[in-house]
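queue> pop job 88
queue> type: inverse folding (structure -> sequence)
queue> payload:
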């Protein structure tokens, strides 16, 4: 089983995803998605909505396809990861 983290969702200080009823639960800015993903991939940490660093190990990164602009965010994320020297591949 692979552990999954989210490029486009905010996290709480206890490691849970921020409830979607809050307007800041979704991260739609591609730069913010990349920043969060790089922190998860490189450092094993996600910065919670309140600024708390939360340990988070992930084998895969998810971008929610039901959020408007998801395809463009995913493409920007892939480009940014590759530009940072991180290999993007299909999980095995």
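queue> result:
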């Amino acid at each position: 089983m692979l552990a999954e983290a989210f490029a486009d969702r905010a996290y709480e200080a206890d490691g849970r995803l921020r409830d979607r009823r809050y307007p800041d639960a979704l991260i739609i800015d591609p730069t913010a998605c990349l920043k969060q993903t790089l922190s998860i991939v490189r450092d094993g940490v996600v910065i919670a909505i309140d600024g708390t660093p939360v340990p988070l190990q992930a084998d895969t990164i998810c971008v929610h396809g039901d959020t408007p602009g998801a395809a463009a965010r995913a493409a920007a994320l892939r480009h940014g990861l590759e530009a940072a020297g991180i290999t993007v591949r299909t999980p095995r």
